Amino acid sequence: MDPKAQFLAQFRQSIADGHFIKLTLSKAGGEDKEFKNVYARLITLKGEPHLSFTLRYATRDITKNHPPQEAEAMLGLWLGQDFLHGVLFTRDTDITLQYNRKRKPRLFSAKASLHEAPAQNHDQAKQYLIAAEGSPYLQAMGIASSTGKIKADGQRKFRQINKYIEIFDTLLSQAKSLPNDPHIVDMGAGKGYLTFALYDHLVNNRRLRPVITGIELRENLVVFGNELAAKAGYESLSFRAQDIFDFRPERIDVLIALHACDIATDIAIAKGVQAGAEIIVVAPCCHKQVRKAMAPPEELQPVLRHGILLERQAELLTDGIRALVMEANGYETKVFEFISTEHTSKNLMIVGVKGKANEKAMAEIAQLKARFGISEHYLETLLRQHAKVD
């Protein structure tokens, strides 16, 4: 068995017997002069062992997670081509594969220099689908330090980002017809915390080929997002300075709108429904339209004469009818509480996955509107204008 094959066999065995600690590749020798090093550690993703590779480039780091068999194949491609020096650290031995100038390999063994593997708690991995290490966007956004550690004042936002990714990952599992190259539109992307994390997760954890477009009115945030995407090597992630009402994409597989105020949420949902999106995710805020269109009956006045109670009732009706309209158009919906990264208050999140239409939904909407004196819900109006709701 040649030295490279022995090295890979030792790697495979160290994973199997639980003795693996970490692995490093150095002495770059490939065509890509920007590709400097690779570091690998063992993590647990969804209850299964994975190797988390941090690929170090001159100006960015990229994290890729692979099951052991795929990880071994990646090492086989890199060793002797992109890197001429590899070290496998196990509980028993340090194993080094080294290539000379003629690219002839030699294998060396030495006494183990490390005895404890880094925590696999990606529970830390199970908890955190987005890793702190190797995520340059977290550093650029001030959440992580230059060494890849989450800052004290970034812990809350980091947890929120991962909670969002957990929610989205569940929706991916429920979607029946989502393609491997999903076209995703994030309407009102803001600074892009969740947009970048979603791209990272879909590419590096889910092994998909997403095309993600963030729509944002503020030009400075669009410039920031596009520059950061280029720096991170996120080739299919881009941002546009545009009003969501004017955005007319050819294809939407996933529609996201987490910071759209008032009727902007209705516009986003309507665009997702009209495009036949497999997944729609919105977190509405600033509910005004339905409240202005409400004339509650006399028997409700003892409660709704108080402005704050009328406002909260209008919010519940606004989002409840939104969910029913989505159901009428063939989406299975859930409404639950979500803490946004952009706002300190708790928002409701409405999610819809393509499924069976609720045949009773339109009658239920009519009953609610009559009961609370609602003359118009803007989402209905938008869809009716496009002949989606009769």
From TrEMBL:
Alphabetical UniProt keywords: Methyltransferase, Transferase
GO cellular component, one term: cytoplasm
Gene Ontology terms, MF aspect: methyltransferase activity
GO terms for biological process, alphabetical: methylation
Ranges where the Methyltransferase domain occurs: 156-292
Gene3D superfamilies from the UniProt entry: Vaccinia Virus protein VP39
Top-level taxon of the source organism: Bacteria
Record-annotated membrane-spanning stretches: none
Pfam families membership: Methyltransf_32 (PF13679)
Protein name: SAM-dependent methyltransferase
Organism: Phaeodactylibacter luteus
